[in-house]
Amino acid sequence: MSIDDGSLREELLVARAYLSAVAEPPAPALVRFIGRHGVQRAAELVRAGDVPDAVTEEVEARREHVCGERILGRARENGIRLLVPEQREWPHERFSCLSDATEIGIAGMAEPIALWVRGPASLRAVTEKSVATVGARAASGYGETLAAEFGYGLCGAGFTVVSGAAYGIDGAAHRGALAAGDSTVAYLACGVDMDYPAGHSRLLRTIAERGLVVSEYVPGTSPRRHRFLVRNRLIAASGQGAVVVEAGARSGAGNTANTADALGRPVMAVPGPVTSASSVGCHMMIRSGKAVLVTGPEEVIEVIGPMGTSPVDDGAGQPRRGDGLDRDAKQLHDALAGSDGASAEQLARDSGLPLRKVRSLLPALEMAGLAVLGENGWVRRA
Amino acid sequence: MSIDDGSLREELLVARAYLSAVAEPPAPALVRFIGRHGVQRAAELVRAGDVPDAVTEEVEARREHVCGERILGRARENGIRLLVPEQREWPHERFSCLSDATEIGIAGMAEPIALWVRGPASLRAVTEKSVATVGARAASGYGETLAAEFGYGLCGAGFTVVSGAAYGIDGAAHRGALAAGDSTVAYLACGVDMDYPAGHSRLLRTIAERGLVVSEYVPGTSPRRHRFLVRNRLIAASGQGAVVVEAGARSGAGNTANTADALGRPVMAVPGPVTSASSVGCHMMIRSGKAVLVTGPEEVIEVIGPMGTSPVDDGAGQPRRGDGLDRDAKQLHDALAGSDGASAEQLARDSGLPLRKVRSLLPALEMAGLAVLGENGWVRRA
User: Fold this and answer.
1) Do residues B4 and B87 touch, judged by C-beta distance below 8 A?
2) Alpha carbon distance B320, B293 (integer Å)
3) DSSP A28-63
4) pLDDT for position A307
């Protein structure tokens, strides 16, 4: 295992391992309790049963039955490392939205207490530029082909593909990414040693060798229905945006998309034949305005923003961009007036446009020479 | 021929026939000139060359070479009738947006001076509830199947399908409508006696027998490239909304959609496989926000509004509606507060939402019991 902070003590890791195992995620009361008392003191208090009622509810069932040392030792024996918020590798930029979400009252959105990881990559480094690419398990050939193309194109453009390693769209997106490079992260709804789904054990091994397989569940934890929904928030938070390639009328991918939306991440969806049940969910999201329609990875990058890469200019994009921007772009351009530098969030408040819309318009304004990202934020240009 | 107004004099028809033939549509200066001087006096002044420069430019080439009586007589011999704004059958409600458009400076948007018509239906009656259903000539099998289904579903729900009788999507939409009833109108970019395109001569005959074939070009006029664009404004104006079933990156259907949008009509587009060139234009319109994504005729009716029929409730629609409405619907619901009755246009101004959006949200609010259409316009409900 690699601890990238020399001052980090083994006792801290043991305490985090204990706290990670003692409550079923998400555990918002326990997360707040740790914030108030510090990791090691919180672990002692939990073990002693000296905690407020809300924490008791979360930890009562397991507090006397789990042992941090043992869990941590066994994980290391199996090549699994523990990643904790005190390490530099912890992707605070990605996960901070989850604690904000708790504060503003989005239920079940606590940050993970720790993550169990297989793989050589740095989670923070690979998710610095990343896209959650998700979709239905019951995907069509069309959907799987596209998911692989999106994975390949995004990874080729320097973005990490974050997904859930499920059959169908998830697997195809991971495979596409692996075909273009090493940047893919799979978040599991079970222990990272569980090889679930069974048919993806080879895929998971490959991801663990070249990217990262991650879970907030301690090794050995079985998948459960509710864990998929809880896990989805980590996929949604880990991407700078979420793309749904195919989804039925009710699917887990819809849950990830809703979560990404609630966290302020732009949501995108790929259309398909209206005669295909596998695209119904995507069409619903686009139709309702929750998702932006995207037809290829270059359009995803256009929505997410440059972030180091310049968006692909495919020619055909030009008239479309001009067509659509008119009203909203003007509104946003107005909101930039008189500001020495504003964040997307400020601009959303000022303009009254949805944050998602602001995020997608800013790069377009920038390309049109109407806005520039300065040291203090976005600045207007005439 | 059927003149539905006993007091209408033959001289008026002859004068309109002359004015219809003397200028290449659209002829905004001539239309304004007729408005100022009256039909018969305007015809005399044009014939005498006693007109302002702007009118001269429009009529110079033909003013001595066309004869109203002869054109009208020959048309009647061929079973073609002349429809003029002085008749009760003239669809003022549909076309008034074209003269507004001239006033607000949308180029080339003049009302037609007269229409040449084959068919038994009343243009005003059949376009009271109508949807422009258009798309590419180079359509895929997927597109043609859907166009027929949209035509069938819309006609079955009491809406007239207005289109351009072209190969591909247009033809399929007309055929679908004919399969469900008699309500379909074809606007041609040539004389209504020209049977263009040739492969659709039988389709055109059927439409003329059961619906209407209409043109502002005098009988015998050949199709020309620019006439398709000019004709498109009549299709756009004649529908309460426009649906694009399939369109390439640059297509005439895109022009009709842009025109419908400029005229304040809701624009809708049907998605398809992102791998299909025939859906690229539809995806561009949806992505840019110009068009609302629709997957079936019931969603078209939902966007256009009840207008006599209750929108189809397909069950699957429920969660989607709830999902998407949140922010915009609230904004619109707020805009309704304290009003004794407001039009969609007023609400668009008050809420800052695009008129198209307001038009699509109002029926949804109504169905949710949050708004009701009273005598003076839309009223809020708690």
Assistant:
1) yes
2) 13
3) HHHHHHHHHH-HHHHHHHHHHT-S-HHHHHHHTTTT
4) 52
Residues in chain B with CB shorter than 8 Å from the CB of A320 are 284, 287-288
| CATH fold of the domain at B317-380 | Arc Repressor Mutant, subunit A (1.10.10)
Q: Which of A142, A149, A268, A295 to mutate to test the interface with B (most CBs of B within 10 A)?
A: A295
Which residue of B296, B320, B327 is in closest CB contact with A284?
A: B320
pLDDT in tens, B196-246: 999 999 999 999 999 999 999 999 999 999 999 999 999 999 999 999 999
Of the candidates B321, B310, B379, B13, the residue with the CA atom closest to the CA atom of residue B157: B310
pLDDT in tens, B112-162: 999 999 999 999 999 999 999 999 999 999 999 999 999 999 999 999 999
> CA A47: distance to chain centroid?
32
Q: pLDDT tens across B285-330, in order?
A: 999 999 999 999 999 999 998 553 333 333 333 333 333 345 677 7
Chain A contact for B323 (CB, 8 A cutoff): yes
Task: Give the integer Cα–Cα distance in Å for B134 and B132.
Answer: 6
Residue B150: closest C-alpha in chain A? A274
CA distance B321 to chain A (A): 7
Q: Classify residue A103 as exposed, middle or buried by CB count within 10 Å of its CB (0-12, 13-18, 19+).
A: exposed
DSSP state of A315: S
pLDDT at B345 over 80: no
Which parts of chain A have pLDDT scores under 70?
A: 1-8, 102-107, 306-327, 338, 349, 351-353, 367, 382
Confidence of residue B188 (pLDDT cuts 50, 70, 90): very high
Q: What is the pLDDT of residue B309?
A: 34
How far, in Å, CA of B296 to CA of B146, rounded?
8
- Rg over alpha carbons for chain B, rounded to the nearest Å, is 21
**B225 neighbors B34 (Cβ within 8 angstroms):** no
Where exactly does CATH 1.10.10.10 map onto chain A?
317-380
- Position B316 scores a pLDDT of 33
Q: Give the span between the Cα atoms of A331 and A312, in whole angstroms.
A: 25
pLDDT score of B246: 98
Please list the residue range(s) of chain B that carry CATH number 3.40.50.450.
123-304
Residue A313: predicted pLDDT? 35
For residues B79 and B346, the model is more confident at B79
Question: Closest chain B residue to A281 measured between Cα atoms?
Answer: B320
Q: How many beta-carbon pairs under 8 angstroms link A with B? A: 96
| Closest residue to B272, CB basis, from A273, A286, A352 | A273
DSSP 8-class letter at A166 = -
Q: Inter-chain contact B270–A274, Cβ cutoff 8 Å?
A: yes
Which stretches within B9-90 are classed as H helix?
10-22, 28-37, 39-48, 53-59, 68-77
Contact B249 A316 (CB under 8 A): yes
Fold for the domain defined by A123-304 = Rossmann fold (3.40.50)
User: Does A129 touch chain B if contact means CB atoms closer than 8 Å?
Assistant: no
| Parallel, antiparallel or unpaired: strands B212-215 and B184-187 | parallel
The number of residues making up chain A comes to 382
How far apart (Å, rounded) are the C-alpha atoms in residues A324 and A318? Answer: 10
The strand ranges marked E within B24-157 are 81-83, 115-118, 130-134
SS3 of B61, please? coil
Mode of pairing for the β-strands spanning A377-380 and A371-374:
antiparallel
